[in-house]
Write a structure and sequence with these properties.
about 220 residues, alpha/beta, Rossmann fold
C-alpha cells in the first residue's frame, strides 16, 4: 500500500482516507481539508500499515470509498488507536460478493478483460456522465494497466479468505445511482450492524460528497 501524507504544521487531528481500486492521490488532492493532516491510502497490492505512525494524533477520522471500505476494514481490524469517526462511502467490507459487494461474475469479467478501453468504460460508469468523467480525467491516476490488474487480482484472492474484523463503521453513504457497488447490495451489507445509513444522490464517484469533505462536512 502507498500512503501520501499531507502535513498541516503540528496538527493533532488526522483524516485517514482510503481510496478505491486503481487510484492514487491525484483525484482527491483538491478535496482535502486544510485544518488537519491528511493521509491518502491506495494501491492494495500490499496491506502493510504502520500503526505507530498514527499514534501521535489525538483524533483520527477514517473515511473510505469504494474498495477502500474493504481495505480499511481489513487493515484496521485490530487498530490500537482511537477513531473519532468512521465513514464508508459507496463500498462495503465485502469486495466480491453476489449479495453484499460486487458480483463475482462482474468482478472476474472486469479482471479478465482489463485493458485501456475497458478501463475507460469502467471510469465512465463510475462517474456517470461525460462531464463528470472529464473532470475525473483532468486529475487521472498515473498508474499502469499492469498495476491495476495485479491489484484487482490480489483483492479477489483475499476476498476468498475473509478475516473477522472488529472495525466499526459509524456511517455509510450509499449513492442511489451507483453502478459499481449496487445500492441494494450496499444496504444488504450493513444489515444487522450499528452503522447509520444515508442515501445520497450520487454515482459511484461521489464528487459532491468529496467537495463537502474539504469543508469538514
Amino acid at each position: 500500500m502507498i500512503i501520501k501524507k499531507y502535513k498541516q504544521g503540528k496538527s493533532p487531528s488526522l483524516l485517514l482516507f482510503f481510496a478505491g481500486w486503481g487510484m492514487d492521490e491525484r483525484p482527491f488532492q483538491a478535496y482535502l481539508p486544510k485544518d488537519r493532516d491528511c493521509w491518502i491510502c491506495y494501491d492494495y497490492r500490499s496491506l502493510a500499515f504502520d500503526y505507530s505512525a498514527v499514534m501521535e494524533y489525538s483524533e483520527v477520522q477514517v473515511v473510505a470509498w469504494s474498495m477502500g471500505v474493504w481495505a480499511a476494514s481489513y487493515i484496521l481490524r485490530d487498530n490500537p488507536f482511537p477513531v473519532s469517526e468512521s465513514i464508508a462511502i459507496n463500498g462495503t467490507p465485502y469486495p466480491v460478493d453476489d449479495e453484499k459487494g460486487i458480483a463475482e461474475r462482474i468482478f472476474q469479467g472486469t479482471l479478465d478483460g482489463l485493458n485501456e478501453q475497458t478501463l475507460q468504460k469502467f471510469r465512465r460508469r463510475m462517474c456517470g456522465t461525460a462531464e463528470a468523467l472529464n473532470r475525473f480525467l483532468a486529475q487521472i491516476p498515473q498508474r499502469s494497466i499492469e498495476d491495476l490488474r495485479e491489484e484487482l487480482r490480489l483483492i479477489g484472492e483475499r476476498s476468498k479468505q475473509p478475516l473477522p474484523s472488529t472495525f466499526r463503521w459509524d456511517k455509510a453513504y450509499i449513492g442511489k445511482s451507483d453502478k459499481i457497488f449496487l445500492p441494494a447490495n450496499q444496504q444488504k451489507a450493513w444489515e444487522g450492524t450499528a452503522t447509520v445509513l444515508n442515501l445520497i444522490d450520487s454515482e459511484h464517484y461521489p464528487e459532491e460528497w468529496f467537495k463537502g469533505m474539504k469543508n469538514g462536512k
